Amino acid sequence: MNRQVFINLPVSDLKRSTEFYEALGFIKNDTFSGEQASCMVWSDSIYVMLLTHEFYRGFLQDKTIADTKTTSGVLLALSLKSKEEVQAFADTAKANGGNVYQVDTGISEDAMFGYEVQDPDGHNWEPMWMNPGYQPDQPDRPDQPE
Predict the structure, then answer these.
(1) How far apart are CA 11 and CA 16, in angstroms?
(2) Which of 49, 76, 87, 140 lies 20 to 30 Å from 6 when distance is taken between CA atoms?
(3) Does the structural domain 1-63 have CATH classification 3.10.180.10?
(4) Where exactly are the structural domains of the chain?
């Protein structure tokens, strides 16, 4: 069996969040979904569990749920196949109630292209594309013979 990653996110409105993630291309797995949770499938090995606050709280023992609209504890990056797929992901997120912006990382967009996307609850996602064949121009190095 392949190893799998399950990302559990507390959400304030399960229906709204489920629709948001479906619009982004996640597929709802009804077998593991119900009134307290939606299992959203990204790939054969990556799942996002959207959990109502009440249900999520049951896993926390003495902790409280972070207000992800004002506090960040994690950035979740998803690789996509092309710059166009990244752009479409960001555009779809914005059209469905997400907040979208770019950060200047100082890396050429020919090497890496991405956005910061916040879902309606403020969880940060980073759809990104990386060019495995990227070779930056190498400036002349003074320590190398000509």
Answers:
(1) 9
(2) 87
(3) yes
(4) 1-63, 72-134
